[in-house]
Amino acid sequence: MSLTALVPRHGPKPISLTEFRDALEALCRSRFPATRDARPRRIALAVSGGVDSMAMAFLFSSLLKSDRGLEIADRHVHGACGIVIDHKLRHGSGHEAACVARELRSLGLQACVRQLKWSHVRNNGLDPARLSNLEGTARTMRYQALGSTCRSLQASSLFFAHHCDDQYETVLMRLLAGHGYRGLRGIQEANAIPECYELHGVYRSGLLDHEPQRSSRLSFEPSAQHLQRLRMFIGADSKGKPGPPSSPYLTPLNCEDGGIVIYRPLLGFDKDRLIATCEANKVRWFEDHTNLDPTLTTRNAIRHLMRAHRLPVALQKPAILSLCKRARRRTMFEKAEAHRLLVREAMVCHFDPNVGTLIVELPAFRADRSASRRPVIAARHKARRRRRRLILAMAIRKLIDFVTPELHLPSLASLENVVDRLSPELCSATNRQPPKAFSVAGVKFEPLVGLTSTKWLLTRAPYPSSRPLPERKLRDHSRYGPTPRDRVLEEPRTVRRARWRSWKTAQLWDGRFWIRIRTCVPATFHILPFLPQHAKPFRLALPREERWRLEQILKRHAPGKVRYSLPALYAVQEAGAGDWTTRTLTLLALPSLGIHVPGLERWVKYEAKFKMIDKSLLGLVRRDDARLHSDGSRCAPSRRAANQATTRRRHAL
């Protein structure tokens, strides 16, 4: 043994496979523990060619070779694919992307290169490299390219190589920008892929897609034994309990789930260790010289500042990372407390996914006593009220997420007035007004005043006249498809010879419903709201029994103006040319209610699902709001018991 081998090295230590495996196990937890069948799938790696992403690629390559039973987020992994994004913003980027892909293949990984398309910018006579919002635009296009590629690869786990130094730069940038402690949490270890909100199967959707594929998805189907037991229980419960004829049954819509999750397993490692990993294993990486230009991006300016100057101790890496950890812990505790409040008080009374309505009942907080002369007690009451308002605002935001059509939830600061309206006992004002309807984030809050409490009905707010109606074009053909009264529906042989096309990718309508269709005729279909001027012709086209069923369903599930926020499938016929084009709409179906004109199923099929929601908040019952009989059935509490329960909850809060 040479003497150089005995000399201790004080430089950065390469990352071992044990450390990397432990980081993966701590990060990639089970997403769907109820799954019964989980077949091996691939994972995706976002590889830029830098030292951080190449080190991650090497670690995954070595781990897959040494551990054949590697499991990540419910699925056994049988391979990894590195996705290289060519931004096409500088000369030689295509050659560099090809070199990165070749290096990934030498490590035993699959590789694919995706080029960003800037034709929509160049067609307007602009240079993409000179855009004022270049960084944000490139980020959006990059995430959408990554998401669509993962969808084609059927990979639900996407790994990024952000490291500890990236975390430090991010928190420092947000600190200099004046962010609060919520913004100082920095980069999250795991989150849903951003900027892909309208891509089905990418953002919080696609799990329940039962379309036949070469590699099936997760299976939630119960075993044969469980199915037999369910039939026995359902048969016993249904005996002697026929449903009332005045309330037709409406099959609840499925709610979406799944989507692509981004994991960052290297956030706990310094960049020096990533460099040491590549150097020790002779892994080649590629430096992007644009990262050295301090005038290009804010992050580059921060990096130049850290290299050229010695920052104060409070702005150095250990202090900033400690600040990030404290902010993350504080936010985590607040989220947990808001979730406990939602579960303990069973705020969600009823949710209807077919129309997107929610009935909630908020807890009755105990109002603080009159202001004390002692400053300590007064400050304590003020801090307690401020804390309750914050937790309640977080809970309200989760309730808004059920109904809102907006892609981004409102900030907590914008919900201050909402807290005052829903819980006036937490408001500092002394003159309390009766509950009134109001709207926020596209959600209308309507009070349902009862004898002992006030519930709130959350519905989609009416569409403002100043904005266009939400519309989705599902198909675009020059020929106009048949209406229900056309001869094609009277000739089954003609339709039978027609070739059914495959299901089209579902599209997000109004931020709430995912809708897709399948046709055997060329036609143009649009998704628009259930417009009042089309209601009467649609009812007249239905059979008598189906017409009665529609009226009863709308009366029970979508009363008043709520029905005009439902998605409706229209056939579109355009006539004329140029600026004199006229469009004729024919209402064919209400997809979320499963009601359509007769004969429609012979030439078009549709499928509707509601967006992803927090299902853990459904089906909860307050302990004090129901008494349990000896046989296990529940009955409604008396008025005295309800008043006693309300008093106990107030004292508990």
UniProtKB/TrEMBL annotation:
Its EC number is 6.3.4.19. It holds the Pfam family ATP_bind_3. The keyword Glycoprotein does not apply. Keywords: ATP-binding, Ligase, Nucleotide-binding, tRNA processing. It comes from the Eukaryota. GO terms for biological process: tRNA processing. Residues 629-653 are annotated as: Disordered. The keyword tRNA processing applies. PANTHER family: TRNA(ILE)-LYSIDINE SYNTHASE-RELATED. This is tRNA(Ile)-lysidine synthetase. It comes from Ophiocordyceps sinensis.
